[in-house]
Amino acid sequence: ILKDIFNNKYSPSSVSRITDLALEEVNKFVNRKLDNRYIAVMLDGLFFYLRRETVDKEPVIFALGIKESGEYEILGFYLTIKESHNNYKDVLEDLYRRGLKQSLLFIADGINNLDEEIMNIYPGSDFQLCTIHYIRGLKSKVKEKDLEIMDDANKMFRCNNKEEAIGKFNEFKNKWENRYPNIIYNT
């Protein structure tokens, strides 16, 4: 592969040295100290095909922090066998161990009891379900003829300011609350 990419042949010992150097840099990155406070932390798993004995899709859980300056920072990435409560708990504990002591808001998908785990490790933080996961989740909660609710929810989350968002939420509520009150009051 390296020959194709770099148009150069590397000896096995050169490949080993390159790999060792790369792993050393990765280890420095994933073990570095973090700032103690971020405005928001987003957690999500992204699936990749990995070759072990077989080729399987496995998640890498990413943690992305937003600083008070608005700057984004990759806080860590974690190769796991599956997206589970325990794996996300391990991620949260690692972030805490590395220095993250406070975030005003955590944003993640609907892993069971993840919001409670966040409150245990980071008391005083708020939790928000990722809007993409929220919108996708609507599909399983409404009748097929009402799937336009997903478009309406998307409009609600794509506003430029607070006033516009409140207006879109009220439109969403007025249109859908009679048919799906549980969805409206959990938004």
Question: What does the model show?
Answer:
InterPro entries: Transposase_mutator (IPR001207). Keywords: DNA recombination, DNA-binding, Transposition. One of its GO terms (biological process) is DNA transposition. GO terms for molecular function: DNA binding; transposase activity. This is Transposase. There is one protein chain. By secondary structure, the protein is an alpha/beta fold. The protein has 3 domains: 31 residues, no CATH class; 97 residues, Ribonuclease H-like superfamily/Ribonuclease H (Nucleotidyltransferase, domain 5, 2-Layer Sandwich), CATH 3.30.420; 58 residues. It is built from 8 helices and 5 strands. Strands 3-2-1-4-5 form a 5-stranded mixed beta sheet. Helix 3 packs parallel to helix 4, helix 5 packs antiparallel against helix 6 and helix 6 runs antiparallel to helix 7.
